[in-house]
Structures
1.
Amino acid sequence: MDGFFSVFDMLAWFPENISTFGQELDSLFAIIYWVSVAIFFLTFGVMGYFLVKYRYSPDRRGYNYHGNNVVEITWTVLPTLLFAAIGLYSDDIWERTKYSKRVPSADVEILVLGKQFGWVFLYPGADGAFGRNAHNDRTARSLMSATNPFGRDTADPSGFDDVVTENQFVVPVNANVVMRGSSIDVLHSFFLPHARVKQDVVPGTWMTIWYNLFKTGKYELACAELCGGGHYGMRAEYEVMSRTDYDKWLDARNAEVKAARTPQPAPTATADTAAVASLR
Amino acid sequence: MSTSTLQHGSAAEHGHDHEHEHHHDLPWYRKYVFSTDHKVISKQFMLSSLFFLFVGGAFALFIRWQLAYPGQAVPIIGDILPASWATNGVISPEFYAQLLTMHGSIMIFFVVIPFAVGMFGNFCIPLMIGTDDMALPKLNMWSFWLVPPAGLIMMAGFFTETGYAAAGWTSYPPLSAQIGLATFTISGQTLWTISVFLVGFSSIMGAVNYVATVLNKRAKGMKLFDMPLTVWALFITAIIITLGTPVLAAGLAMLFMDNFLHTSFFLPDNLVTNSTYFGGGQPILFQHVFWFYSHPAVYIMILPLMGIVSDVMATFARKPIYGYKAMVFAIAGIAFLGFIVWGHHMFQSGMNPLLGTTFMLSTIVIAVPSSIKVFNWLGTLWRGNIQFSAAMLNALAFVSMFIIGGLSGVFMASAPVDIYIHDTYFIVAHIHYVLFGGSLFGIFSGIYYWYPKMFGKMLNETWGRRHFFWTFVTFNLTFFPMHILGIGGHMRRIYDPNVYDFLKGLGGVNEVVTIGAIALGFSQLILVGNILWSMKWGKKAPRNPWKANTLEWAAPEHPGHGNFDMDITVYRGPYEFGVEGREDDYWPQWEKGASVSVTHHTVAVTDDAKTFGAH
């Protein structure tokens, strides 16, 4: 019988949480859940009791009573207090997780773009700085194309070592990851179910997405905004690594990018080819 | 005067004379097709909505089949599906997106709104305020006759190259602007925009008519606070429609231009696409415009049913509505708040999170008038004498399912909780608890309640209860597990959940939902069968079968054009049940008689001088 009732324990169905603020969001969900369960049993209990007790009988008649202002005020004020408390408590968490000025200083900064139907990521590379691209310079937006979604300026030396990955990304554990997200075509939504992160990405605008994950492992990224027939397959994988593994991974990518660039004698002349190479 | 004289008097015959006097000269198509009689228009809305209910329901069953058994051929009809829908009977991802778009659009714009506002608005308002017809009957006729062409235009998307519209019922650009297509391409999405624009016009025409009728055509003696809650709710709904729908029309006009002419109201510059356009627009603007209408539209879809359920509950609990005025103010409060909460659909859209705080707090406030309504309904049951007719059962289902839908609404109203559950099946569960569990049970309740007055025949009560039982059970089997899917992280609008590892454990839940949905769909055949069967073979309805108080029951059994066969004067409020000093346990609004109000009770007195408006 216990197994049967566990179906009704909705909280058990959450995927495992791996982000710092995720615990707060889950416990807020649990608070509202238990309040709802209480209200559910209260109202259904009262209703069920009335339905049985006052069921039709030919020798009784309904009680002519039009209501009572004291009662009305009571059941207006009590829910107001309850819901206001939920609202204010929620707002506190909301401010800490989403407000722009509350975004923590970044340990790792990554750009992410949604496209039909996949995700691309841009890491700053070995020098720790992005070259000129559509995020840090609006005028570079005109460079955006299917092969160069980030609108990278291949003439900018600080961008030579930027690393692009497709449908997979890696973040270090216990670090503040700050991502700037956008889209090159339609709306998408950056959804990390285990990290309790969701943010629509909108073409023409860059959204800030941040999180701090405390558990290593491989997890999934999904698109949560209908973006066409292939929406369902817009899946990416990400791996949360220890700091040393992350550094190793980054070094390996840097080496790949460098290897792709070395045969080129003059960077400016073959800028386009370099961009394509680094895309792979 | 007792009502028995009314029922068995010469009133019925007189009613028929009345009909013939005015109508023998009208050709049949003016009587049954292009009629200006509000009752005929109401029936037309009912039939078209019932038709679309099954179209939208069929789309939903395709969706459910795919989610429970992804990659398997649709049974029975799989082989005959057109190639643009399915290959070897397996639904294609593109068609899946069209399905969910058409399901939502049809159910909202062609089923629930026409049922709630078109059908009940037309039928109830003139009869319940004791007048012969709408203030503007021709406009009323037009408001219906925009619906069939709009429906055809939307369904014509099938014949375009890209098929039906496929951007969801919310049609967010740039997807809905279809930037990949050349300028001047007519796609299913273009037709969708035109179609919704037209039904919007239909709504506006109906709504201005309702406002004009309620304000100008009430029977002698009927003050605003003598109106039944159904009329109050429809009146306030009409005000929402007149304020909100033009905004949607503006948004759709801009979307149409972006889609068809490649203007850039909602399209930013440098989109990566093959087509050309101007750029410089903002996609989120559309969401603001859309939800400014579509959040109030949620209340357009439920407020009329709240009114109807209140009337049904008072009649079958044989009790006055508890806190009549509080109920009116709660409806008005919900309507007002409905206009300042649209941003709660956009917490994760990229809107400034600062606004998230504003919209979260205003949204949570809506829980207050909603709970006032629930408590007052419970108060109405208290010390009643409750008859479990099919109409009452559906009304009780409305209240209980609305409680669940309202509570799940608190989760998503809380912006931080919404981060996770936004665009998951939790939202789908919520909307169906409110729109099916709420609105559709309310609609069923209203159909069972007013069918005798609409068709002059009683609906079969046994089959009515069977329909209720199967609908109630399979409804919960279908939609309750969706909460679990949502908590598991199951995104809405995805074609195949098995792509994701974290959703692999939810296959069984998806199957339960699908089995429930199929049973739920077939249960509705009972309703249609009952409606059609009773039209011909139903028992003849008496004038006031439920012994109710409101004015529509003063009209003849099957009222003709002009409605009433006697002069109507209103002497009291609509909910005088169980009044002390009276033999009957009900006291119709149109019956002469005096009363006094003593500490929230009404007591009948013989002295006319002591008449008080009793509420």
2.
Amino acid sequence: MRIFDLSTKIFCLLLVLAVTFLSLGVMADPGSAFHVQPYTALIIGKYLCYAILALSIDLVWGYLGILSLGHGAFFALGGYAFGMYLMRQIGAKSVYAASDLPDFMIFIGWDKLPWYWLGSHSFLFSCLLAVLVPGLLGLAFGWTAFRSRVSGVYFSIISQAMTYALMLAFYLNNLGFGGNNGFTDFKTILGFDLRSNGMVGTLLAISGLTLLLSYLLCRYLAVSRLGLVLVAIRDNEPRVRFAGYRVETVKLFVFTLSAMMAGLAGALYVPQVGIINPSLFAPVFSVEMVVCVALGGRGTLYGAVFGAIMVNFCKSALTSAYPMAWPFVLGALFVAVAVFLPQGLVGLIFPQGERASKSALSRAFGPLARLFGRPGPGGPSGPAGEEDADETDSDGPGPEPPAEAGGQWGPKAVGSKVF
Amino acid sequence: MANATARLWIRLSLWPRLNLWPCLGLAALLGLVCLAGLVGLAGQLGADESQAEAGQVEVSAAEGGSGAEGVSPAEGVPPAGTGGGGGALAPEVTESLASSKVNDRDAAIEALSADPSDGTTEILRALLEGRLMTERATKGLFIRDGDGGLLDLTTGERLAGDGKNNLRKVGINNRQREGLVSAINNRTLLNPDPSVRRRAAAGLVASKNVDLGLISGLLERETDPVVAKGYRKILAMGTLQNPEAPADEVVAALGFLGENLTPEAREYMRNRAGSDEATIAAAASAAMASQDSQLEHIAFFETVFFGLSLGSVLVLIGIGLAITFGVMGVINMAHGEMVMLGAYSVWALQSLMPGQAGLALILAVPVAFVATGLVGAILELTIIRHLYSRPLETLLATYGVSLILQQAVKIFISSNNRSVETPAFMSGLLYLSDHLTVTYSRLYIIGFCLVVFLTINLVMRRTRLGLQVRAVTQNRPMAQAMGVNSRRVDTFTFVLGSGVAGMAGVALSQLTNVGPNLGQSYIVDSFMVVVFGGVGNLWGTFLGGLIIGMANKFIEPINGAIMAKILIMVGIILFIQRHPSGLFPQKGRAAAL
Amino acid sequence: MGAQGRRFQGVLIVSALARKTNNASVPKNPGLPDNFAETVDREAGRGGAAPILSWETKRERRQKYILFLEDVSVSFDGFKALDNLTLYLNEGELRCVIGPNGAGKTTMMDVITGHTRPDSGEAFFGENLNLLDKDEVFIAQSGICRKFQKPSVFESITAAQNLVLAMKAHKTVFGTLAAKLSPEDNDYLGHILSLVRLTDKADKLAGTLSHGQKQWLEIGMLLAQKPKILLLDEPVAGMTAREIDRTTELLLSLEGEHSIILVEHDMEFVRSVARTVTVLHQGTVLAEGDIDFVSSHPEVIEAYLGGA
């Protein structure tokens, strides 16, 4: 029950070392042996932002068992909120230098900023907005969903619908967010050149620090008694209510927190990538991030970070080498993770928990094992799960149901590893 | 509830050996039903064809560019190539038609208009439709017919399409276009076939320069009430245009036009509404109000129709999902790609059978069912089988499959859209009244949706497969104990769901572009339909789809298409959060737990 | 007999019985009564207690009993799961509720814990807590805890963590986030662990425990909540004879300290723990009395043997 267990220590150490090395390397003299290309640093910074997003997904999925397919929306909203500040920073350096308005507003014939751009010139206010807007959306969405006990697959589908609706909205030109093209062509941040080596290194360092703090925050949640409640909710939500916890409030708290983390990640993403457009709202982006988490190993935090960095690294490598092949690889990853690696790569490499006695290999072939082995009890996830719960109720302690009838969704061992 | 379940078990137990052959038979039957229905339609193909082509002309005119606004040619003469071309033309007419000077062509058109023979009508029509070609070198004139062949006007010979290659279209301007239209109309008005005259009269109403004397002469001889009404409209409009017309005539004309919807007369009415004479002004306003209300009704009906057609597309896609998602609890994110594959099967068949677009489309229904059903079977047997009761992971895995399928289509076919032909019996307009038309394609899709839905419902309610599926859904171990092979039922259910998606794709190929992203653009909507309707309830899906389609089309005119979609999405999200189990929730104690 | 009359009678009988069970000097039901209501009247009269208690106001009854259910009806799609059920529970009492399948035992627990809202009726916990306008969480926090028919412990955390989770504490989000295990808590949980004989399994995942151990763990979780009323739904289902004996011992040790409602099918077990047994049939109380009384009651026999 300590925050700093071995895995956390290793993780923090590696992260701090790598980020320090890289950001100092960027700022170093180009002639020196330690110099790192700014391009590399920007790419790494982008991965770190994805890692924060993956952490936020892992928090709600791995611990709470809520699969959100709309976390990209929080990420993108954070990005847009901070992007507004960057757009205002362009100011007189824009193509239409005469006006203070962003170029795209001039294109659609607006002559003044809409009300929701008020305050976007302030750095601090924009940072605040980047966290608060996703937080508020998460709060509102979660409140309506959890209050009416929408869960499981239903939640996934409506969260996907949410990000899809937002994507459609942000594609509209007259929403005032640049439509199709979004925000790009940023110049400065707090007056400093965005592309200077110093700024690139600083951004990388800030991303690393944010990742570290987010990780420790998640870790704190996980080892606190609230972490127990989260896992309990994932296991058996109704029972937690009877234990006297307000499940809805707990879920809402964690979901909102997670949305805010995702927003922060988006805000860090924009200056490093240099563009934000509605494609971040596309459902496929959110699902890709979910797969990162699943591939790394959900419910472990470091698995999510590992998965996000690895998948995106592969993506960059493959899309430049074989552009046609990436969707195949990604698709195959989706399938392989779901079928063969329910605990992710981390689970494959470090088998722990109740199934520790089984070899890693047998766990890799989980489906086969499940077909012949002992299934878990029915869990209340999705329509099939509900049916199961009911029937097991009436059957009482009968013989174990056949493999496909039961099966608690989500690995048991993952939770155990945490504590 | 409990009783019904008990009865189900009793019935199940009376069938010790449950046979799945009927399921195969039913799948075949389903294909046959669609086939038979469409073959029946194809029987009308001949009858439809001329009508449809007639319709097509009107569609193109109605949808045509701003230049041709309000100009609609009346149909009357049989399509190109049948009149024999009327042999040789006077050389000077040919020459001036082929001339590049506008004045020359004006003269030629005038000369042709004056010549009442059938051949000249054909030339005028070809000129209007841009099928009249000239060869630069010889100044010869040709009419290109539907199959790409050419008719040499100087010799009257038919040439193969590729016989001449240095051809140029004879251009016309808007003024000439109007002249041509009225010249053609004037000829068709004397046609003995009343339906030809009806269309001609309708065309004239839209045209601006009409010989009123001619019309009143025609009106006296006209026996067909619809044509006569058209003439009266023309005359009434003439009265309104005439500043010297007596007041009582104007009032009568306004009254007539007000009662009989004539949007073309709007401008004249507005002019008269500002008249100094109170009676005329009042009559004009009344006529305009009456027109407005009629237009509103038409707009309402059209919205309902578009809503129905969008709804039935959603239902078609949703049924397959309702089966796999609702009945089996499996989230098939690759469902959209099944739809896409179904649409591609139309394209594939049409490429295999060039020139037989209609037959290919009809054949595509069973082919798509089998093909996507096969893909579904592979998917089920290799992946989904391992993921039952882990719905969230099914979602991920099928998402991967959808990416792979999309990319496969992009690589092996093309990332561009493929053109799918609309067969003759699917194209064209059905006239419900002068101003109220519906497109055949949408009408057929609504019908197709009904047939598919009722068939699936029948399969689920009246067949052994349906019974087994419901049994497995309600209580899997119990169904297994009764001898139901639940694995096989799962496979068949999934195949059925995927096959229906393929058939939906066939329908969709007639409405939108067939491309690799076809499925993706519908998947979120169709999930919404299933969830909105209530999972596990086919009727819920049906009504849900129709309601969403309808709502979409009713909101669209107010906020635009994208905002409509967003609003619907938000509405459904809020609805689901208020009623988590949709429109038709499963009732009883089981649902409460 | 009209609904009003029946309700009246129900109040009468149960109140009388409740008094009887409190008073040890009242003799046990002799012989086979041919009519329960008459028996009660006779009994009450002979015992010298006031035979008619119906003039007690509701408030007085609420003050008197820790749990008060009157005329509770629940129906699912026309099926009456509970039909004017009336039941009172004394403080510290151990009450067994038996009944054939579908008698409404689980539904009764659902109503008490706020999981199901009844169509009509009243339910109070203590004098003032109206169970019908509170939700599960509030009811659980105020001291009514429930063990489910199917053992439902949290399988992916350890047995000890299950107890920590259930332990009575400030169960808000931030309270939980900041919660620390004090030495007293630690001792208390240790005590519970030994009470449910899971001390050596404390660090095992709950999912790896045997069926009987899961049942015990869940009882332990209930105790950790320091409840006033324990609702136990078939606590000995699937247990070996030895485990049942231990459970009996455990429950008997809790009697007096906690009020317990026990739903059970195992008549031997009921016989060994029960003071008062309530028989439910078709959603309403069929008979109430000690085990010998109800097991020889003709209507009860009819309900069990004649088929529901």
3.
Amino acid sequence: MKNDIILSGVGGQGILSIASTIGLAAVANDLFLKQSEVHGMSQRGGDVQSHLRLSDKPVSSDLIPYGKADLIISVEPMESLRYLPWLSTNGWLVTNSNPFINIPDYPPLDEILKEIKKIKNHIIIDADGIAKQSGSARSGNMVILGAASPFIEMPFESLENAVIKLFGRKGDQIIEANLKALKAGREYSK
Amino acid sequence: MKKLLLLGDEAIAQAALDAGLSGMYAYPGTPSTEIMEFIQSSKDATDRNVHRQWSSNEKTAMEAALGMSYAGKRAMVAMKHVGLNVAADSFINSAITGVNGGLIIVSADDPSMHSSQNEQDSRFYGKFAFVPCFEPSNQQEAYDMVFDAFEVSEKYKLPVLLRITTRLAHSRASINQKATIPEKMLSLPADPMQFILLPAIARKKFKFLLSLYESLRYENRISKYNYFKDGRNKDLGIITCGIAYNYLLENLDKSLNDFPVLKISAYPFPKDLIKDITGRCKEILILEEGAPVIEEAIRGILDEGIKVFGRLDGTVPRDGELNPAIVAKAIGFPVSYGQNVPSLVKMRPPSFCNGCGHIDMFNSLIEAVKPYGHGHVFSDIGCYTLAALPPYSAINSCVDMGASVTMAIGASDAGLFPSIAVIGDSTFTHSGMTGLLDAVVKNSPVTIIISDNSTTGMTGGQKSQATGRLEQICEGIGVSREHIKVIVPLRKNHTENVGILKEEFEYKGVSVVIASRECIQTAAKRKRSENSNE
């Protein structure tokens, strides 16, 4: 088993909460894991990515080789396209449909979505909208993770348990909202 | 044995705590910041009262760590690669004094300059100072090496350099925790003259250091971190070190090519092992993350020996960090890319946060300086350097910590008027204060704007030594009270702030304008933690 996942977004959007959830689940499943993160300057509103590698054998490189990613999970639509050189032929791209516009030359959204739809395996999800419906506007990242979960080779329950562990200190209400968001995302993809 | 999921930085911090660390010293700098942050948030460190406060800069951190080592306890100091330039004086001399308690200097290099102004390779410093240097290739090795580095440090009475790079520092993997070692007791050096580098003593000690370095080189042939794995295909031998080893393994995994491989992670690198692999193979490929340190040594000036491929002949790019594709190409393996990035995808450089106080300060500065034309503003290292980019394009320099103040002085000496510096609060206490003293002593007509967001912002909001002290510091250095102006950078104060800046630009002496408003990120973090404590 090998899952090479690229997480993408804009600094401040919190892609690391997705990475931490998958990471906790991977440890619980006794998988080997390497997760490369971006800290520092780019976190100030620049493009950020995280390479997450899960395997039942030890992982060598902290970076995913080009053309080998099984999955791109993006919390921002334009950012999902930045990492296509890494996506394998049969890989999946799961992205939020809501743009984060902090540059003057941000392209028209419909053209971005048109490019995403050219990818063989793609899921575009209105994570912000679904998160609001689940009762927690801030749990959009968990909606996206839920939508990507069918392509991560781990039992769904282990992701749920990871959410409980990750948000444990923040109280039952926040845990419930995030679990609901995670499930709503998964339902969308099914 | 406990398994932990840790960043490379965190693995180093955890190892130091487990190995009986008594004092951690650092100044924030990407990619090294998380080492100190991990220790500050560790319950174990709090219970044991391990020293864990930020220092004003890397030099003060290095010297304080040396002081703790003098007193017999284990100390660690961490910094980014350019921080070692700041600490270089004490670092290099600490090799000559030697240590008492174990002392590790972690220098985190940033090849490809993700968040830095250069990509210098700290291994040069190891060689320069004649100290042992370890370079881990993964998080477990980083963890284990801290234990060994403390032992080597105490065995040879030398400081040990631990060189890491961004990818290792900021990549998470699970590590096996070792049994813990208790902290050392206070004990003074056996030789009361050990730390006195008077020339007569230093000469003797330096001779000894030189001979010690050659013994270390010899011993490193049996270091568990330097190993040779023979292979059947002797057409190519591969020498690799640090994280480059992972990219090699990533490629060899899928290949039937069975090359002899020498991995070097403990320096000074052993001549014997290098002679051994070069003697077995027809050609040699050298993979190093950073500068061609080993490659230059093997080639020498004449480069007449075995055929060598590496960064110096273009087989591997001369600059920038490695990745699996670069390594594959260097060996001659094909690289398969996915799809191209569609042309509509635009660059998204880092930018100021919405509502950031620096924005309002720069808007006032831009208007105030406009009548004088372009080229009057020297700046520094921090979030405010982002004002170099449009729509601001408001600064004309960013060189090293503190250089805004001193470059403004030099340009003013040359006749530039007005000559303005923009420096952050933490950068000012790191290296701006001494420059300000120069300005005061000769009454340079410069205006120093301290953009005070009451934190070390770019690295994620660490405590700033300057908070609450800036006015007294400037006054104490000798800036006249009438020319220390405190403004609040808010849109509603814009006109007033422009007026104050213009007035100070025209003043023919040293003036300091402190533009003070808390970083919105740290303010939000503070409010969150205040709420959760209620």
